[in-house]
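help with this record:
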Amino acid sequence: MPQNIKHLWFDFSATLAFIDAARRDQLRYSTYAELTGWPVSPALIAEYNNLYEKFDHSNTAIIKFA
């Protein structure tokens, strides 16, 4: 197995488990706020949502490049 693998990502949402959208969004925005050092605000949420579109609906890409 290659030694450069840092993590594995399993996307089971809506297949094996159903996640409450409000809880998911709270986690996305609070994690992004923590990484950027900015408070959760309408501006932060708008920026996150713009990045979500830019990175083809990938939360992982946003967090990786934050």
Remarks:
- DSSP finds three helices and no strands in the chain.
- Helices lie at 21-36, 42-54, 59-65.
